[in-house]
Amino acid sequence: MANQSSPGGFLLLGFSEHPGLERILFVVVLTSYLLTLVGNTLIILLSVQDPRLHSPMYFFLSNLFFLDLCFTTSSIPQMLVNLWGPKTISFLGCSVQLFIFLFLGTTECILLTVMAFNHYVAICQSLHYTTIIHPRLCWQLASRAWVISLLESVVGTPPTLHLPFCPHRQVDDFVCEVLALIRLSCGNTTYDEIQMAVASILILVLPLSLILVSYCAIAWVVLRINSTKGWRKTFGTCSSHLAMVTLLYSSVIAVYLQSQNSYARKRGKFFGLFYAVGTPALNSLIYTLRNKEVKRAFMRLLGKDRDTRGS
Fold first, then answer.
1. Smallest Cα–Cα separation from 181: which of 197, 204, 200, 158?
2. Which of 13, 168, 244, 305 could form a disulfide with 300 if both were Cys (CB 3.0 to 4.6 A apart)?
């Protein structure tokens, strides 16, 4: 029982057998983190400051990018320390990291589902959009996403932390996440694996199903549009969100739906690293580089606004 509550900490192995690779990863992770900080802060600032971005889409987007800032800041500084030097993390630090991963990971899935619903109403119920997606509903949906995720994390974190961990306490990953800690256990993990399977259905499968249903309805409406301009407008509205959904779910599926052989686990670590580091950076790049409204708002912030109505 001592292993269950010992504050002795853990070793985050990462790719300790390849120190040269870890030096390269240090530069990649640091660069991605800086891009996330700059890109996400910029979009949040623009969404707050620019009246033309005071819309439900950018309200939910600001929530999502604030979430990404918290998510990366909870793991990447510790990850950079471990890639360059000592690989230890305290039991408290690992507990906090696990709690935040569950909390913010769940919130991200729910927010992406809410954004898909927003796109569905905007395209399929356009005449009633302002009456359906009103500011009060936006606040209610966002607050419930955060509260539900918080409760899920409060329930899901303690069982994992109370596992009978093996004496070596070597976590075969870059961060303290559920699957890596379950693998560290030397006891029976059946309950935890069942709990993780149920949580995966509620957190991943159900939101993804709702997103797919929303986009099937959108596709049905789009197929009936004869206007090329209408097609382009719909694609412009949905493409960035679809890219974010694809990045998130492809990374998570690659991490959690893998075999237990050593090659698959190393590949899973790469995908887990991409989920924690690459996905937030790419999300901000998608909106700062591709979204015309964001680029125009940035030009207005710099005082270089031009009349872009026809552009």
1. 158
2. 305
Q: pLDDT tens across 164-217, in order?
A: 888 888 888 888 888 888 888 887 777 777 777 787 777 888 888 999 999 999
3-state secondary structure of 236: helix
The pLDDT of residue 303 is: 76
Measured between alpha carbons, how far is 166 from 152 in angstroms, rounded to an integer? 26
Q: Which two tokens stand for residue 221?
A: 């409406």
Of 201, 210, 202, give the one whose Cα is nearest residue 115.
Answer: 210
Measured CA to CA in angstroms, residue 259 lies from 10, 170, 266 at distances of 24, 20, 11
Task: Using the predicted structure, report yes or no on whether residue 3 has a pLDDT greater than 90.
Answer: no
Whole-angstrom distance, CA of residue 38 vs CA of residue 41 = 5
Side chain identity, residue 118 = N
- 293: Cβ contacts below 8 Å, ≥ 6 apart: 52, 53
pLDDT digits (tens, 9 = 90+) for 18-37: 778 888 999 999 999 998 99
Is residue 106 left, alpha or beta, with left meaning phi > 0 and alpha meaning psi from -120 to 50?
alpha
Predicted local confidence at residue 8, as pLDDT: 67
- SS3 state of residue 264: helix
Find how far residue 276's CA is from the centre of its chain. Answer: 8
Residues in contact with 40: Cβ distance below 8 Å, sequence separation at least 6, in sequence order:
65, 66, 68, 69, 280, 283, 284
| Count of beta carbons in the 10 Å neighbourhood of residue 72 | 23
Token pair, residue 96, equals 């906090």
What distances in angstroms separate CA 227 from CA 16, 87, 230, one per listed residue?
56, 57, 5
| Distance from C-alpha of 76 to C-alpha of 69, rounded to nearest angstrom | 10
What is the CB neighbour count within 10 angstroms for residue 268? Answer: 21
Among candidate residues 214, 204, 219, 281, the one with its CA nearest the CA of residue 250:
204
* The two three-digit tokens of residue 222, written as one number: 């789009």
